[in-house]
Specification:
The complex is a heterodimer of chains A (141) and B (247). In chain A, a hairpin with a 2-residue loop joins strand 1 (108-109) and strand 2. In chain A, helix 3 (77-104) runs antiparallel to helix 4 (116-139). The longest helix of chain A has 31 residues, at 31-61. Chain A is 67% helix and 3% strand. Chain A has 4 helices and 2 strands, in the order H-H-H-E-E-H. Chain A has helices at 31-61, 64-74, 77-104, 116-139, and strands at 108-109, 112-113. Chain A has a two-stranded antiparallel ribbon with strand order 1-2. Chain A has a domain at 105-141. With 247 residues, chain B is of the alpha+beta class. Chain B folds into 2 domains: 4-104, Roll (Ubiquitin-like (UB roll)), CATH 3.10.20.30; 107-241, Fumarate Reductase Iron-sulfur Protein, Chain B, domain 2, CATH 1.10.1060. Chain B is built from 9 helices and 7 strands; from the N terminus they run ββαβββββαααααααα. Chain B has helices at residues 35-46, 107-115, 137-147, 154-158, 160-164, 171-181, 189-196, 210-214, 221-241; strands at residues 4-11, 21-28, 65-68, 71-74, 88-91, 98-100, 103-104. In chain B, the strands form 2 sheets. Chain B has a 5-stranded mixed sheet with strand order 2-1-5-3-4. The longest helix of chain B is centred in the last third of the chain and has 21 residues, at 221-241. The chains are: A mainly alpha (141), B alpha+beta (247). The A-B interface holds A 1, 4-8, 10, 15-20, 22, 26-27, 30, 32-33, 36, 40, 100, 103-106, 111, 113 and B 12, 14-20, 70, 94-95, 97-99, 105, 138, 141, 160, 163-164, 206-210, 212-213, 220, 222-223, 226-227, 229-230.
Amino acid sequence: MKSASATPAYTLNHPRWYRKRVSTYWWLQRWEYLRFVLREVSSAFVAFFVVTTLAQLYALSRGPEAYAGFQQWLKNPFVIALNVVSFFFVVFHSITWFSLSARAMVVRIGGKRVPGALISSSNYAAWLVVSAVIAWFLLRG
Amino acid sequence: MVDTIHLEISRYSPEKDAAPYFESFEVPFRKDWVILDALNYIKDKKDGSLTYRWSCRMGICGSCGMLVNGEPKLTCATFLADYAPAPVRVEPLRNFPVVRDLVIAMTDFMRKLQRMKPWLIRNEEKPLSEGEYLQTPEQLDVYKQYSMCINCMLCYAACPVYGLDPLFAGPAAIALAQRYNLDSRDEGAKDRFPVLSQHDAIWGCTFVGECTRVCPKHVDPAGAIQQYKLTAALDWFKSVLLPWGGK
């Protein structure tokens, strides 16, 4: 395949096709593309959330002093800002994940495909139940 | 009341032009006209050299796919009235080489489609005298959605992965492979597996989901790809975890 050059050289048996280069900023050209890229980027923040939680558990296992030190680190304005951003990305990631799961999973009951809305809403229901259990565990005493 | 509308049409002549440019045409605005009617009007009345593909003008042949204001559309099913009074921009499908004006080269797609073996594969063909392979409505229902594909390639024009990586098999080819994999009469899933479970086939897809959004026949290629990822992953787990393998 030939690409365009400044001086066209057309021959019958070698048609000169024009190939347009994809812009480096293709992901800024449509909201749908930007949303996709944000969803991909969100995984870095999800990883940060997971690592923070594991570090928190590790600090907890090492006793009250270590945990106080960890809390001190959490109070750092930079860490607070990072956590706020991460929170929004994690929520965005979860919502997009749930809406995608409906498309990737085909569940058939009695030969009929279960509607996607039912699959994503059951994901949300499970999310609510887990959140409620954690909230109860944290707030009960 | 508007009675004319402007079309900005991408023109490219390989003999003369180094790159495509836009040419503006004024056409009568009619409520019942689709973009393709306007293109036919231009070709009949204004410039006979305008080059584009079309055939059935009823959303079945899949040849009139173009970009309308940047969005992949079947021009036979896209009404001027939805864009009036602003000018409408018509371009060839994105991510394909342009042969001339609005015509793209589809060789790449055809080659990829062929690799998927999109036909019924049987281990053993039964003799004609035994009649046809029967199928229940439920069995038809499993793959029918994917069989609606008309090879219009709008999904390829919408897919940023295909734009960035021309080796990617692409949405329609994978959806059509699934169409045969899910067909109860087909026994070729194992033949298609090595082609499908490649980095430049299903694993190249990052689930942007645009292919499904632009599909004029509601095939949902993105769904087909994710479902096959699940199949391939389960197959891998089986072959690794079970001593007798997943085969």
